[in-house]
């Protein structure tokens, strides 16, 4: 399905029904449409998954929007809700999708009942404005061999979940299938998708202290779900946000990494459902 907002067209899917709305915006979601956040519909929520501008079936972007990417993505989510007649909603995002959530919470707090950030930082200002993983993708845009290697690495990463769940034949087969789908999907990505450099969320803030002061302005309830084995967003990055966001809660899974929603699918669904159910 498609929705026009702010001069672009966004691709989205819808799950469940009712007025307990959950919105999520990402580059892309699970290729089998399983697990987070789709499974929150099983908990009684009305879920919309939105593919952000610049990616996949949504309108592609050929210019660099500099430090405005996250602001624009957040404004697109806000406009999407308005177009659907949704006055209040709960937002959840993973990694870059959680980055969108921080910008939503600061730009449009009046429409949010709460926010669940999966491995969402915010990132420390240390280490530059662009992550190494993002730079690798950007550099591969015009290098077919580099793109193939990156796709192979992603396939191997998904196969590691098949190995992790080797004792569960159904899950093992699911992740073996995902591995091939994400491999093929990465090879099909356009050069303009790979070149997108959104920088870190809240990139206009140059020090960690500035980030903490900005986060202290957030008054909505915030759930941060993180993973001890996350190599992209170390748990040390979320200790300060928990201390400065008044209505915040943090859950850390010891046996999970950056895709905590795959490592702990049922736990993540239940945790978000419990947190969000009291907010409508």
Model description:
The chain is built from ten helices and eight strands. The chain has helices spanning 69-83, 96-107, 132-140, 144-164, 169-188, 191-195, 208-215, 239-244, 260-263, 265-277, and strands at 2-5, 8-15, 21-26, 46-51, 89-94, 112-118, 222-227, 248-253. Strand 5 (89-94), helix 2 and strand 6 (112-118) form a beta-alpha-beta unit. Helix 3 (132-140) packs across helix 4 and helix 4 runs antiparallel to helix 5.
Largest sheet: 8 strands, mixed
Low-confidence stretches: none
- Oligomeric state of this protein: single chain
CATH architecture group name of the largest domain: 3-Layer(aba) Sandwich
**Residues in β-strands, percent:** 15-25%
User: What's the CATH C level of the largest domain?
Assistant: Alpha Beta
Tally of structural domains = 2
Rounded mean pLDDT score: 95
The CATH topology of the largest domain is given as Rossmann fold
Structural class: alpha/beta
Overall outline:
globular
Can you lay out the helices and strands and say which pair or pack?
Elements: E1 2-5, E2 8-15, E3 21-26, E4 46-51, H1 69-83, E5 89-94, H2 96-107, E6 112-118, H3 132-140, H4 144-164, H5 169-188, H6 191-195, H7 208-215, E7 222-227, H8 239-244, E8 248-253, H9 260-263, H10 265-277
Parallel strand pairs: 3-4, 3-5, 5-6, 6-7, 7-8
Antiparallel strand pairs: 1-2, 2-4
List keywords for this structure.
8 strands, single chain, Rossmann fold, alpha/beta, 2 domains, 280 residues
Short synopsis of the structure:
By secondary structure, the protein is an alpha/beta fold. The chain has two domains: 210 residues, Rossmann fold, CATH 3.40.50; 47 residues, no CATH class. It is built from ten helices and eight strands.
């Amino acid at each position: 399905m498609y929705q026009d907002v702010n001069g672009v067209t966004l691709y989205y899917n819808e799950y469940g029904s009712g007025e307990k709305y959950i919105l999520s915006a990402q580059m892309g979601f699970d290729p089998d449409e399983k697990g987070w956040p789709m499974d929150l519909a099983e908990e009684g929520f009305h879920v919309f998954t939105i593919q952000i501008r610049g990616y996949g079936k949504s309108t592609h972007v050929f210019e660099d929007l500099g430090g405005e990417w996250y602001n624009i993505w957040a404004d697109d989510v806000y406009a999407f809700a308005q177009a659907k007649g949704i006055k209040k909603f709960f937002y959840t995002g993973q990694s870059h999708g959680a980055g969108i959530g921080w910008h939503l919470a600061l730009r449009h707090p009046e429409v949010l009942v709460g926010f669940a950030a999966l491995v969402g930082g915010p990132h420390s200002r240390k280490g530059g404005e662009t992550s190494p993983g993002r730079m690798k993708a950007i550099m591969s845009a015009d290098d077919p061999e580099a793109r193939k290697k990156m796709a192979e690495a992603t396939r191997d990463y998904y196969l590691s979940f098949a190995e992790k769940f080797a004792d569960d034949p159904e899950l093992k087969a699911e992740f073996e299938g995902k591995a091939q789908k994400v491999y093929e999907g990465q090879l099909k990505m356009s050069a303009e998708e790979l070149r997108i450099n959104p920088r870190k969320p809240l990139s206009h803030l140059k020090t960690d202290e500035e980030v903490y002061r900005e986060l202290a302005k957030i008054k909505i309830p915030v759930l941060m779900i993180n993973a001890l084995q996350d190599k992209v967003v170390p748990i040390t990055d979320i200790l300060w946000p928990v201390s400065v966001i008044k209505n915040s809660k943090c859950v850390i899974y010891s046996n999970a990494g950056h895709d905590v929603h795959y490592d702990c699918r049922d736990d993540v669904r239940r945790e978000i459902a419990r947190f969000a159910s009291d907010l409508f």
